[in-house]
Design goal:
Elements lengths: L1 H39 L1 H5 L9 H24 L3
Length: about 80
C-alpha cells in the first residue's frame, strides 16, 4: 500500500514538473515573439497601441449623438404605456 502511494506521489510531481516546464517555455516563447515583432515590425505594434486622441470635431459629434440618444429615450419613456 505504501509503495503504491509513493508511486502516485512521484507521478504527481513528475506531471506537475512537466506542466511547469511547458508553461515556462510558453512564457519565454511569447515574450520572444513579442520582442521580435516590436523590433522588426514597429508599424504592426503601432496599430495595437490603442485609439488615437479625438479631435474637437469628433467631440462635438459625440455631444450631438448623446443628445439624440437622450431625446429618444425620453420620448420612448413618455410614450410607453405603464
Amino acid at each position: 500500500m505504501g509503495d503504491m502511494f509513493n508511486t502516485g506521489i512521484e507521478l504527481m510531481f513528475i506531471g506537475m514538473g512537466i506542466v511547469f516546464v511547458f508553461l515556462a517555455m510558453l512564457v519565454v516563447a511569447v515574450t520572444f515573439m513579442s520582442w521580435t515583432i516590436s523590433r522588426f515590425l514597429p508599424e504592426a505594434t503601432d496599430s495595437l497601441a490603442g485609439p488615437r486622441p479625438k479631435s474637437v470635431k469628433q467631440d462635438e459629434d459625440d455631444g450631438e449623438l448623446i443628445a439624440a440618444i437622450g431625446a429618444a429615450i425620453h420620448r420612448y419613456r413618455k410614450d410607453r404605456p405603464d
